[in-house]
Amino acid sequence: MEISITVNGQSVSADVEPRTLLVQFIRDNAGLTGTNIGCDTSSCGACSIHLDGEAVKSCTILAAQADGGSVTTIEGMAAADGTLHPMQQAFMDNHGLQCGYCTPGMVMAATSLLNENPSATEEEIRIGLEGNLCRCTGYHNIVQAVLSCTKS
Amino acid sequence: MIPAAFEYVRAGSAEEAISLIAQHGDEAKFLAGGHSLVPLMKLRLAQPSVLIDIGRVSDLSYVTDAGDHIAIGALTRHRDVETSPIVLEHAPLLAHATSHVGDPQVRHRGTIGGSLAHADPASDLPATTLALGATYVAQGPNGTREIPAGSFYEGYLTSVLSPDEMLTEIRVPKMNGAGWSFQKFNRRAQDWAIVGVAAWRNGSEAAVALVNMASVPVLATSVGSAIASGASIEDAAAQAAAEADPQADLNASVEYRQHLARVLTRRALEEASA
């Protein structure tokens, strides 16, 4: 089936099988491999992206369900001149990543969380990121990074 | 993991969805948010040959105040239920329980109707709507019918919905200021409850429903009767597992689940009575 999804502001059209997952569309059709596949069972959050402005797990959505929608991936976060998104900068400043595998999903989930709750507390951030696993267990610095982006 | 191949069709209205499923027979499945069905399809535990995507039937996404109850469209996403001012005011137990479903990303996509129709006894909303005495509205080729939550669930992942019916609305009686509590016991973030308890109390009236204590959500009627006859919270909670028929699994034995049900029911009643 022919579908068309706006990815980071660019329209991407492709003829895909109905069973194509959104994360496959992003990685294989849009060619953006910053979005990682981790557990592939909607537990780990590594594949988190924004669909129409909200964080979702792209391994558990069919590309067909997102047809006509607007997706933002980690590649769409920095400004055109390369200036990092404040959340990306905060992860860097707070050493919020070790191996980096969970980081794209963490950044996407965290920005969605603060869009909904700009002055989230540390506890709200910890609960709000429960859908994202860091197997380096670097949660402390991840939470500090997100906390530094809140409006206090 | 990739689902087995299927044909994908999109419905623009409930009527179109019902006519499509009649046309494709029981090899077809409705796709709402997809957060129960797609994982099963990826594991190839479900292999429908046709998916009827009802995710864009926007007129089934709403929350309205209907006098003595609130009406929630079956395709209302969990996030919209948990943040709805109407749900927060009139059915705070449902708003709170919904905030425990999955994680934020899951709640952005999953729908109340999808969760209930999936009929997983380990998920939070079947028991919660059972405790609240909700009624589900189903639409089929011969019109609509109302199904009380208490007679909706038949067994594990099985409900009285016929293959050509879909849920369209959930009607939840207003709680009218009753105290409430939702207790979910699990070991890891975002896991299903090993045991969960949804409870409310208004004076001598109380209802308690249990998550993951049988192949269906369980209304702990003995607890409600005990409270109505003036029993203490402790004595009432001791009856919590009377109607349950839990299974053992890697997380818990039958005895441990019964113990958890009693402890969590006591905590729930204490919180709901405070």
Helix content of chain A: 25-40%
Query: By helix and strand content of chain A, what is the structural category?
Result: alpha+beta
Range of strand content of chain B: 25-35%
Mean pLDDT of chain A: 97
Name the pair of protein chains with the most residues at their interface, and give those residue counts: A-B, 29 and 30 residues
CATH class of the largest domain in chain A: Alpha Beta
N→C terminal distance of chain A: 47 Å
How far apart, in Å, are the first and last alpha carbons of chain B?
A: 48 Å
Structural Rg of chain B = 18 Å
Strand content of chain A: 15-25%
Oligomer: heterodimer
In short:
Chain A has 152 residues and is an alpha+beta fold. Chain A contains 5 helices and 5 strands.
Write the layout of secondary structure elements.
The complex is a heterodimer of chains A (152) and B (274).
Chain A: E1 2-7, E2 10-15, H1 22-29, E3 48-51, E4 54-57, E5 70-72, H2 86-93, H3 103-116, H4 122-128, H5 139-147
Parallel strand pairs in A: 1-5
Antiparallel strand pairs in A: 1-2, 3-4, 3-5
Chain B: E1 7-10, H1 14-24, E2 28-31, H2 37-42, E3 50-53, E4 63-65, E5 69-73, H3 78-82, H4 85-90, H5 92-98, H6 104-109, H7 112-118, H8 124-131, E6 135-140, E7 143-148, E8 153-155, E9 158-159, E10 166-173, E11 179-185, E12 195-202, E13 205-211, E14 218-219, H9 221-228, H10 233-237, H11 254-273
Parallel strand pairs in B: 1-3, 2-3
Antiparallel strand pairs in B: 4-5, 5-10, 6-7, 6-10, 8-9, 11-12, 12-13, 13-14
Helix pairs in contact in B: 5-8
